[in-house]
Structures are given as C-alpha cells and as structure tokens.
Specification:
The protein is mainly alpha-helical. The protein has 17 helices and four strands.
Length: about 350
C-alpha cells in the first residue's frame, strides 16, 4: 500500500499524518507511448498555439505565454490527435482542433484561478497573482475567441458543434460549482454533475472531434465520447484525492488548497456523511466559515484517514477509468488504442 505522509508544525511540534492512497498501483503507467505517437503533430500544435497568442496588446501574449509555458502535459489536445489518427484521419484539421482544445483548457484555467482565488498554478505563481484578476479574465476571453476562430478554420460543423457545446457546458459547471461552494448539504450526485460539466466535458469533446473529422460512424464517435467523459471524471477525482494525499508536483498547485479555499470535493463529502456529529461540525466550520488553519488541515487529514475517504475516492476514480477502457474495447487494436488505454492508468496513478 502506498501512503502519503504529511508533516505539519503546530505549536512547535512536528506531526505526521499518514493517509493510505492506493493499493495495487501500477508503477509502469505512463503517458509516454501517447506522447511518442503524437510527437510530430504536437510540434505543429505548439507552433500554432504560439502563433495564435500573438497580439499588439502586450499583456495578452505575456499572460498567455506564462500559463502555456508552465509545464502542462497537454493531455487534452493529445487525445484529439490520437483519436483522429486511430480513426484513419490523414488531413491537417486535427492540428487546428487540438490547438483549439488547448486554448479552451487554458482559458478555463485562467478563469478558474480567479474564481478560486488561487495563487499557484502548476507550481508557479498564477496569472491572477502576477497580473491581477481583470487581466486573467480578459486574456482567458481572448483565448476562447481564438479557440472558436480555429474551430471555424477546421471546416467541420460537427466538430464546431461538439466543442461549442462543451464551452457552454463548462461554463454551466463553473456556475454549478459556485452555487455549491461551501454548502455541506451538497450530495455526491450533485458533485459528480459539477465535475462532469466542469472537467469531463472538455475531455469528452477533445476525444470525440477526432473521429468526427475522420468521418467515423456514430458508434465510434459514441465510444470516444464515453471514453473522454469517464476519463475526465476519473482525472478530477484523482485531483480531489491529491489535494489531501498527494504532492505539489503531481497536483500542480499547493496541496491543501481545496481545503483552504473551502472547496467541497468528494473526499470532504465522504468524510462529512460518514462522520460523527462532532466531525460534521468541524467540516461545516472549516468549509462554510473558513476555519482552515494548518491545525485544521491536520485534523481534516486525520479524518480522511479515519473514514477511508481518500481510498474510496480513488476507488471511484478506478471505476470510471474502467468504464473509459471498456468504451474503447470494441474498437480494432492499434498502437493508438493501447496508448489511450495507458492514459487511463496514468491519470489514476498520479497518486503516489
């Protein structure tokens, strides 16, 4: 069993909290096969991204470049490239759509950090911390505009419909999350609805537009859509677990940020539902009243261990990961298919 050890200093005493993360983790899980298969296309995607961040308004390329260069793996555009190639596509529009997907993702990160008041993004100061909230929102809007221009350039009404719908769903998810913020009466179904909209919608669209431009039949499109949405849910659930049981490097921001921001995630919901009256009073105070000191975080981590919240969150992630694998199972074998299946395990195995 792999565990995370948290050391906090409270009144001069170092305290360690050990939270079991996952059993039977696959240490060989890797995104490298996918990266290798799409490496040449990704060079073109990156070139297009750089060209589309250009503007006579100096702050726009500065803010965009800060986030784009901050080390993300660009998994979502790689899904677009791989799904298109897996379906036999031989044109260039998958490059344009992959860049569009990455711009959509980058725009949502800029907006998310403003809403969440986050100071860190992928281990670096967030754009809002450096340039302020207004610049982050407006540059995010610029990137969304560029994304839609590229969707039009791809000359596929089907792809445009899927990606534009995803943009709308993501915005709905943001509002849903805002409405549920600091509300301990949120249930697990409500929370899953938020992450399906806020996170999984773009994974789903990124995977589906490849077969669309390849002219694939509806069952193939449906398979990739299911793969993407369930991969996205699994990905977000792992992020939820990492905030309480992971590393800053794996999460891309400070661990404990969700707790400090009063963000209600699945591990919190599980602890709250399973806890005693005293435990529930702690969570209500921490989440609804902002009582999120280092000492409170220690108590939260202890409750996560006591009620198995991290372990069960990862178990749920594995469940959705298996649905993603099963979605691609009927499709013909190929190197791209194997790489996409590896991605599922890689996303879940980020907990270490």
């Amino acid at each position: 069993m792999i565990a995370a050890v948290f050391y906090q200093t409270t009144r001069g005493v170092s305290v360690g909290i050990v939270i079991p993360l996952e059993e039977n983790r696959n240490p060989q899980a890797s995104i490298t096969p996918l990266m290798d298969l799409v490496s040449q296309d990704m060079l073109l995607v990156n070139q297009l991204i750089l060209s589309k961040t250009g503007s006579d308004v100096q702050m726009i390329p500065e803010v965009a470049k800060h986030l784009i260069d901050s080390g993300g793996k660009r998994l979502r555009p790689m899904l677009t490239l791989a799904s298109a190639k897996m379906c036999g596509y031989s044109g260039n529009h998958h490059i344009t759509l992959a860049a569009s997907v990455e711009f959509m993702h980058t725009a949502t990160l800029l907006h998310d950090d403003v809403v969440d008041e986050s100071d860190m993004r992928r281990g670096k100061s967030s754009a809002r911390k450096l340039w302020g909230n207004q610049a982050s929102v407006l540059v995010g809007d610029f990137l969304l505009g560029q994304a839609f221009r590229m969707m039009v350039d791809a000359d596929s009404m089907g792809a445009l419909a899927v990606l534009s719908n995803a943009a709308s769903v993501i915005a709905e998810g943001e509002v849903m999350q805002l409405a549920a913020a600091q509300n301990m009466e949120t249930n697990e179904d409500d929370y899953l609805a938020v992450i399906r909209a806020k996170t999984a919608a773009l994974f789903s669209a990124a995977a589906e537009v490849g077969p669309i431009i390849a002219g694939a039949e509806k069952p193939v499109r449906d398979a990739f859509r299911s793969y993407g949405v369930n991969l996205g849910v699994a990905f977000q659930l792992v992020d939820d677990a990492l905030d309480y049981g992971g590393s800053k490097q794996a999460l891309g921001k400070n661990t404990g940020d969700d707790f400090r921001e009063g963000k209600i995630t699945l591990p919190v919901l599980l602890c709250y539902r399973r806890g005693s009256d005293q435990d529930r009073a702690f969570w209500k105070d921490a989440m609804e009243n902002g009582s999120s000191s280092d000492e409170a975080l220690l108590q939260a981590n202890a409750l996560m261990e006591k009620y198995g919240a991290i372990k069960d969150t990862i178990s749920r992630a594995r469940h959705y990961g298996q649905i993603a694998r099963d979605a691609l199972a009927p499709l013909p074998p190929s190197a791209h298919k194997d790489a996409l299946l590896d991605v599922v395990e890689f996303c879940i195995s980020r907990v270490s």
